[in-house]
Amino acid sequence: MKTRVFFIGAVLALANGVTAPAGAGGFVVVVNRDNAQPTLTRSQLKRAVTGGLKQWPNGAVVQLGIIPGDAPDTQYLGSLLDLSTRELLSRIQEAVFKGELRRPTVLHSSAECVAFARGNAGAICVTSDSEPLPPEVHTVAIQ
Amino acid sequence: MYGDTGVAIRNNADQSWPTATSNANVYAPGVGFSFFAPRLDIFGSADVGNLSFLTEVMFEANPNNFTTDIERLQINYLFANWLRVTAGRSHMAWGYYNDSYHHGNIFELTTSRPYSVNFEDSAGIILSHNVGLGIDGTFDFGSGGSFRYDAEVGNGRPADITGVAMEYAEAVPRTFNVRLRWMPIDGLILGVNAMRGVIPSLAGQGAAGAQAAVPTRPQTEELVAGAHVVYTEHHFLIDVEGFALRHNPDGLSSTSIYGGFAELGYTIGAFTPYLRPEYMRFPAAGDIIYQYAGGDAQGLLIGFPSIYYGIQDFFDVRAGVKWLPMAQLAIKLEVERISRDSQNQEIATAKAAFGF
Question: Which residues on B lie below 8 Å from A54 (Cβ)?
Answer without folding.
Answer: 78, 81, 84, 138
